[in-house]
Amino acid sequence: MAQRFESQEEYLEQIYRIDPAGRVPFSELVKALGVSGPSVSEMCRSLAAKGLVEYTPRVGVALTDEGRKEARKLIRRHRLAERLLTDLVGLPWERAHDEACKYEHIISEEVEELLAGAFPDTCPHGNPIDGIDRTVPPAQPLTSLDLGAPAEVVRIEREESQVLKYLAHLGLVPGASVKVMDRAPLNGPLLISVGDANYALGRDVADRVMVRRDG
Q: Which residues on adjacent β-strands are paired with residue 171?
């Protein structure tokens, strides 16, 4: 029963991450969660019965107000767990996301508030821990940065362990200085400068890197 409860929470969190206000197609959840279509439909029907989502057969789901509230709580605890794991335990930046997925389900309200008072306002990947209730600092995707314009990495959106590991290898972490030096045609990769090194970066990954122009 506990495992199924955690699975339901994962669904709510994933739906919120994909689209907190709109309708999420079942195909997006299948891709994001790595489960079968029938499993997605079954779980979404269960969530709808609890009043957490609005379920439309063969179309998708949308969070209700209650479902959105639960998802926000999970994401806050997830980001606090990431801070705990990186700042206190010393877990590498790129591994914190996957490990936090386990911890977010067992953090109590009391521990949540204690953690919130002990760590910075952002998770290790730059996303505001309380970003639901406060203004997220303005930023733009790396893909939209003018050629040669200096910028600073602010946060990484849609965290995935493999992507985070790759970005960490390139040094594309919050606080890093970056420039877009060139763009390949036909939606090809970007040539970026990070410190003294140049790399080719696919646009799907570059789209997740949010930056703020210097000056």
A: none
Angle at the Cα of 77 from the Cα atoms of 71 and 80, rounded to 5 degrees: 145
Question: What pLDDT is recorded for position 6?
Answer: 54
Residue pair 25/76 in contact (Cβ under 8 Å)? The answer is no
Is residue 141 packed enough to be buried (19+ CB in 10 Å), middle (13-18) or exposed (0-12)?
Answer: middle
Alpha carbon 157 to its chain centroid, in Å, reads 5
Ranges of residues in the chain with a pLDDT under 70 are: 1-6, 131-137, 215
- Measured between alpha carbons, how far is 50 from 177 in angstroms, rounded to an integer? 46
H helix or E strand, kind and range, residue 199: strand 197-201
Radius of gyration of the CA atoms of the chain, in A: 18
Read off the tokens for 164.
């985070």
- For residue 179, which of 206, 152, 207, 202 has the smallest C-alpha distance? 152
At 20 the pLDDT is 84
Mention every residue, 6+ apart, whose C-beta is less than 8 A from residue 137.
128, 154, 212
pLDDT digits (tens, 9 = 90+) for 184-215: 999 899 999 998 899 999 999 999 999 999 86
Inter-residue contact 9 to 70 (CB < 8 Å): yes
pLDDT value of position 131 = 55
In the numeric block, which tokens belong to residue 104? Answer: 């977010």
Looking at the DSSP assignment, which residues form a beta bridge with residue 147? 180
State how far the Cα of 156 lies from the Cα of 94, in Å rounded to an integer: 11
